[in-house]
Specification:
The chain is mainly alpha-helical and 186 residues long. Helices cover 53% and strands 2% of the residues. The protein has one domain: Endonuclease III, domain 1 (Orthogonal Bundle), CATH 1.10.340. Strands 1-2 form a two-stranded parallel ribbon. Its EC number is 3.2.2.20.
Length: 186
Amino acid sequence: MKNRCFWVSDSQLYIDYHDNEWGKPVFDDETLFEFLVLETFQAGLSWITILNKRENFRKAFDNFDYQKISKYSEKKYESLLQDAGIIRNKLKIRSAITNAQLFIDIQKEFGSFSKFIWSYVDHKPILNKFHKREDVPATTKLSDIISKDLKKRGFKFVGSTVVYAYMQAVGMVNDHTTNCFKYPTE
């Protein structure tokens, strides 16, 4: 049996997410935006809730197409509020639209969102050496800085905890615990 990070339950969805996605560096803007949407909706909820609704989010939010989302009408917003397959939080739905618009602004300014976000870690993952649950922080000085910058640009639901979870999800930081089979050995 493989040894995994402490947070992985026996849910196959969680196991697959941990083994195939979490902590794996993501450089394409489409996936970076998907995780931004999912992490902002996760604020205050469990990640398994989001994973269970991920395909519903994908359908509801046009496959996380930020170009389309940035142009959502009030009618589309209202229909999302009625969609029982997603988290029907008015502010979070509104933030997905706003964040899509701001995501595009960053692409225009930096050439891609990837260049912007990865510049915070010099374009390579930070490999942490955490041994147990208590070692893994909820926020760091770097997540504080990124959060502050995103908020200054107008992004919503990007507090430091959400940003750090995002950094973990997209592999900007590798927080697989040292006893996890996914922890790099070299």
